[in-house]
Amino acid sequence: MSRIKDIEMARYLAGEMSMNEEIAFLDKSGSSVKQHSELRNMEKHWKYFDQNPSAKSWNTGTAWKQLHRRLESEGLLEERIEEPVLGRRMVLLRIAATVLLVLAVGIPSLYFGVIRDGSSIRLSHQANEGVSIVNLPDGSRVYLNKGSEISYQKAFNQDRALELSGEAFFEVMSDPANPFTVHSGGVVVSVLGTSFNVKQVKNTPQVEVYVKTGKVLMSLEKSDQTVTLEPEEYGMAEHNNLSSKVLETPNYISWKTKEFKFVDTKLMDVLQKLEESYHVEIQSGEIDLSHMRITTSYSGQSIDAILETIATAFSMTVSHEKDGYILTK
Questions:
Q1: CATH number at residue 231
Q2: Which pTM value belongs to this model?
Q3: CA 288: distance to chain centroid?
Q4: What tens digit of pLDDT does each residue of 268-316 get?
Q5: How many domains does the chain divide into?
Q6: How far, in whole angstroms, is CA 96 from its chain's centroid?
Q7: Do 126 and 242 fall within a single domain?
């Protein structure tokens, strides 16, 4: 193994690579069983070294000089390097210490990224302030509903699997050789390239899957049951049972599209759907909404504009308060 690779590995372990450098480094890494084993060994040594620095053996000057002599003997220095000043010196010290660790372990051929990006490094995204859009490394896109979270391995391109808590709409890039899977509440959704919605219903064991385009395979982690869903079909998992049907409501993913269609719908149901989609609270005070119904549609309009039209239709006024909206007569 070249000494240049020694240094790259050292910088990677020491956490001194930029995100782009890490991605490039991971892309160059191998994926053989032998490399898995070797890298586990190196990470084990580095983890102990990084978490248990001994004051008796932690000598910054010695570590730097050892690294300098080694680089100089290998002909990797084009000009004389002065001992770094404090600050930059600490960065180079971590690299120096890691190189020394690599050399001390004595592994003849090492490739990093297979193990580190397998189980030890996961990326996560949360939607804390409304709907959040996440662009995945493979080009797929995720629309996270408020309060939802996804997590996946850093080397996502090698294994397109992620975990979902909450609700999300997925637009998946096609890659027949590398299926895209979503794990949520004991349910596994597998696709090649499509768009679909997965919802883990809060405070229940229920998971729902809706397919917009393409085809989806829905299965249970602890069962052999599977169901294949096609466009406009809806699958549900509850109490270890799978079922499917054609979705009849046109507003199932309105939280993502902001498109609504209501036909002779109770006004209280309309307001509830708007609350869920815009993540606001709408109060009607003492107004009796039970007898009020509406037929209307909205496309891409703001919640303020929608409520103004509703208030006008029913001779109400709408006011915007800090915590939401209030309808009054």
A1: 2.60.120.1440
A2: 0.61
A3: 43
A4: 999 999 999 999 999 998 899 999 999 999 999 999 999 999 999 999 9
A5: 3
A6: 33
A7: yes
